[in-house]
Specification:
The structure holds 2 protein chains of 2 kinds. Chain A is mainly alpha-helical. Chain A has 13 helices and 2 strands. The longest helix of chain A is centred in the N-terminal third of the chain and has 35 residues. Chain B is globular, with a radius of gyration of 23 Å. Chain B is built from 15 helices and 8 strands. Classes of the chains: A mainly alpha, B mainly alpha.
Chain lengths: 351, 458
């Protein structure tokens, strides 16, 4: 596969991590929206806190998908067709969530405002669960056939066996971990972006959720070891890897410490690091497999799936240019909208 | 109706048709908004800045719907067409990834700045943000057309030893595919026709209803001038160039589009119904030998008829292909006439009083949508029975692991979802139209309101 191949594998992992961290906080904010926003003003503040950034964050999903497509065509083909049903539902949820947000910012009218608040919030919540379950599916392994294809029903008998569904007890656990993780991340973000009572409420939420997340993360670690005793193979082969789970837990402890010390930004960054280390840990255990089969001989590796060396090299040239420009936009965007949210008299934002 | 490949095709056809209602308007309006902005700067005339602001809001709504309905397009390559993706991802993934990396980030960042940043920057800087949005949306269009062009006319690839996939052999070969050049120019001219007609229609509505008459005149003026250019360009050289591409690279498609069955000097069919059984046209109205002239500039040249190709190479739905093509061409001719007549009246400074013409302008805005969709149907139905012309058949490209029932399930889901989206879109646009261009001024957000990537959300 060569160095360029490895580099692309690393690039895609990083892009996916950036997506999870960025869209993660606005999904978390969405999932907490109904619970944290008690008055109309508070809810408008919450929406305004992610207003300028959420769809830019979502572009990372598209960009990552595009890169994945050209670097690993076989992976794209196998995983997208295999996860057909859940992916389509993710698409619908993304749309519903956008509809909720859109209407919410245009209609400041009693029952309809709360209706669209709910659509936005429930859409965000389910997306968080779906993303967690998706990652859980990959770690658990998929019923890949000799042709590297598979098709997953939504559920079968809820057990981790030779004939799994998208949802079983293990992936549901992953979904719950993801939901709590993104809610924590969203709460940390809100602490940075709002002041007053809402700030205090978000901070308390983060302080309640983070210890829960610590326990859930430990639980999912145990569960992973139980269904996959040999998942530690890479860690044993290159022992430095054991530092990753340590960092996972350390970053959660850091969230609590920083939230207590009212270091808002540091708490948010620590939460982001937790998400990053979780993903790095999963990738580290799977490498060089990118889509593990329940029957390991059908697992899809980097080597099986990667495109030609020429395409990788030429792609690297434009990608570096493109991503530097894109990062420039993001730095500019987040700088422009830094600081706490202030509501104006008109209501809504950008109307 | 339960053949899996058919449902997967319907799935893509439905979602892409709905999707393309939005980008054609954004790509079409973008240069007109830049034009308004430019005139505003040039004449230092606040009315044109106001018009630019108003149209940017319509643009923004359409943009967000384009994004929301565009995400499923990228997904569907993998979900519904996994064999195609595995086969060709190494080539067309390149252009799709470039679209995300270059165009989407650019658009999402600058649209917000254009919509909400005007008071925070100089007018020159604001002009540049508008230009960046225009550039981003047209760049995005190029990558998508280059992707489709590769499926129409595959170039710059190597076939793998096992014959199961292709890989890229020349980056610039892919980017500068000769098919993509004409197709892109033709497509963008088509989008510009939509933008111009929509702008002129709303302007005509404002004039006729006596509301915002001043802004209505600006919209009609800019819309008609843009419309003249666009409706001429869509015919020649771009439409003509695209036709000659077909003659060279997809002669069977061209023969089927024109229902030209026997190899001989070819007539240009204006009206009539193709009869595949008798290999003739029922109720024909034709311009004798005109097709021969258009292809070779020689009235008597021989054009290969459909009968000279094996039936396995024939497009699978000749009648629909024929009609799509003729609807596109017929409407294109009407667009040119409407815009030229409006242009003459505008030049005589009588357009704003010519009520019947304003009525025509107001009512004809749906037609460019029909023509653009018909044009894409011509391209995609004409490509059949291939998914990648000449090298991969459609029946070999879909996801065999996804059953017809599952494809039906999600197709119906999309139909429901898109009904909601359509209602929402009409509601939001109607709201902007009834507020009118003057409203924009009052409600222009104070600094720090809204946001960059918040872009189309308004």
């Amino acid at each position: 596969m060569g160095f360029t191949g490895f580099l692309w594998f690393a690039i895609i992992s990083v892009m996916l991590t950036v997506y999870v961290i960025l869209d993660g906080f606005d999904l978390g904010v969405g999932a907490l929206h109904l619970f944290l926003g008690r008055t109309d003003d508070e809810r408008r503040k919450i929406i305004k806190s992610i207003g300028p950034v959420w769809d830019g964050n979502e572009v990372w999903l598209l960009a990552t998908g595009g890169v994945l497509y050209f670097v690993f065509p076989q992976l794209y083909a196998s995983s997208f067709s295999g996860f057909y049903l859940p992916l389509m539902m993710v698409l619908w949820l993304l749309m519903l969530r956008a509809i909720g947000l859109e209407f919410r910012t245009h209609i400041n009218d009693g029952i309809w405002a709360s209706f669209f608040d709910s659509i936005f919030s429930i859409g965000s919540l389910l997306l968080a669960v779906f993303y967690g379950a998706a990652l859980g599916n990959v770690v658990r392994g998929l019923p890949l056939g000799p042709d590297h294809y598979f098709f997953l029903p939504l559920w079968t008998n809820w057990t981790v066996g030779s004939h799994p569904g998208v949802l079983d007890w293990y992936t549901v656990l992953s979904g719950v971990v993801a939901l709590v993780a993104l809610c924590m991340h969203g709460a940390n973000y809100l602490v940075c972006k709002v002041d007053g009572e809402l700030n205090e409420r978000a901070r308390k939420t983060s302080l309640v959720l983070t210890p829960i997340l610590l326990v859930l993360t430990l639980l999912s670690l145990v569960a992973t070891l139980a269904i996959h005793p040999n998942i530690t193979a890479n860690y044993n082969a290159l022992k430095i890897g054991y530092v990753i789970p340590v960092l996972v837990f350390a970053s959660l402890v850091a969230v609590i410490v920083f939230q207590k010390a009212r270091k808002e930004v540091l708490a948010f960054v620590s939460g982001g690091l937790y998400l990053a280390f979780m993903l790095v840990g999963a990738v580290y255990s799977l490498y060089p497999v990118i889509l593990p089969g329940i029957d390991p001989q059908y697992s899809l590796t980097i080597q099986d799936s990667i495109t030609s060396a020429y395409a990788l090299q030429v792609g690297l040239r434009w990608w570096i240019v493109g991503i530097v420009i894109a990062l420039g936009y993001f730095v500019f965007l987040y700088r422009m909208f830094r600081g706490k949210i202030v509501l104006d008299n008109h209501g809504g934002y950008g109307d | 109706m339960d053949s899996a490949v058919l449902i997967h095709r319907l799935h893509f056809a439905f979602t892409v048709t709905f999707h393309y209602l939005f980008p054609q308007l954004t790509m079409g309006l973008a240069p007109l908004i830049v034009a308004l902005k430019t005139i505003g700067l040039w004449k230092n005339d606040e009315r044109y800045h106001k018009a630019a602001r108003f149209w940017a809001k319509i643009f923004g709504i359409s943009f967000v719907f384009g994004v929301v309905t565009g995400i499923p397009m990228e997904f569907q390559f993998g979900t519904n067409w996994s064999h195609f993706s595995r086969y060709a991802g190494g080539v067309i993934g390149q252009t799709l990834a470039m679209e995300g990396t270059f165009a989407f980030f650019l658009e999402s960042a600058f649209l917000g700045l254009f919509l909400f940043g005007e008071k925070r920057m100089s007018q020159i800087a604001h002009w540049w943000t508008g230009f960046a949005v225009f550039f981003g949306s047209w760049l995005s269009g190029y990558f998508i057309v280059a992707t489709d062009a590769w499926m129409q006319h595959p170039v710059a690839y190597n076939l793998a030893a096992d014959g199961k996939s292709v890989s890229l052999s020349s980056f610039w070969g892919l980017i500068l595919n000769p098919w993509a050049m004409w197709q892109y120019a033709h497509n963008m001219a088509g989008a510009a026709v939509t933008g111009a007609f929509v702008m002129a229609a709303l302007g005509a509505y404002y004039i006729l209803s006596g509301k915002h008459v001043d802004q209505g005149r600006i919209a009609v003026q800019v819309g008609v001038i843009g419309g003249i250019l666009a409706s001429l360009l869509v015919i020649g050289p771009t439409g003509d160039g695209q036709g000659r591409n077909l003659a060279e690279y997809q002669p069977a498609t061209l023969a089927a589009m024109e229902a030209h069955f026997d190899t001989k000097s070819a007539d240009l069919v204006l009206l009539g119904q193709p009869n595949v059984e008798t290999k003739s046209i029922d109720n024909p109205l034709v311009v004798p030998h005109a097709l021969s002239f258009l292809i070779t500039r020689d009235w008597s040249s021989q054009v290969r008829g459909l009968s000279s190709f094996p039936e396995s190479e024939w497009p699978t739905n000749i009648s629909l292909l024929y009609y799509s093509y003729h609807i596109m061409v017929g409407l294109g001719t009407i667009f040119m006439l409407v815009m030229l007549i409006s242009g003459i009246q505008l030049w005589r400074k009588k357009l704003h009083e010519t009520k019947w013409l304003l009525w025509i302008l107001m009512l004809s805005f749906p037609l460019p949508y029909v023509a653009n969709i018909a044009g894409w149907m011509t391209a995609e139905i004409g490509r059949q029975p291939y998914l990648i012309y000449g090298i991969l058949r459609t029946v070999d490209g879909f996801s065999k692991s996804v059953s017809a029932a599952n494809a039906w399930f999600t197709l119906l889901g999309f139909m429901g979802m898109y009904t909601l989206l359509a209602i929402l879109f009409l509601f939001l646009v109607q709201r902007e139209i009834s507020h009118g261009p003057e409203y924009v001024e009052d409600a222009l957000p104070a600094p720090v309101k809204g946001g960059a990537a918040a872009a189309g959300r308004n």
